[in-house]
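Morning run. Coffee first, then this:
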Amino acid sequence: ATKGSPTCLAKILGIYQVTSKHLKGGKESKMDVLVMENLLFGRNLTRLYDLKGSSRSRYNPDSSGSNKVLLDQNLIEAMPTSPIFVGNKAKRLLERAVWNDTSFLASIDVMDYSLLVGIDEEKHELVLGIIDFMRQYTWDKHLETWVKASGFLWW
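And here it is:
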């Protein structure tokens, strides 16, 4: 992406490696930690969607209560009665940002990510961000995708 291009990628604030030593035995373990911006901070969201662009196994039957993360099929089901209105200028900006981001992610072989969409009815705003984009599309991910798509497990 060029300078000044719109983006929806959630900002990475830091990547750290945490080392801990167990008291018994002194065994050391390391964990890599990725810290990203909290897109939901200070928001009063009435609906929150984790969208992947697929309807297969993408439905949360328990949509009641606060802090429920809904999925693609929930959004499709809600649109006739609770549509999300976006102005033309905002829509064009969003389309351009998603195009930039998905083109960039594809160019570095990242194929698994989500578009987080929150609806803040109090402020009349959409909260959007592409999240979970740090895992590369490896052979194990390819196998997992194939198994989900084929609908059966073999081994």
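The first strand starts at residue 12 and ends at 21. Good start to the day.
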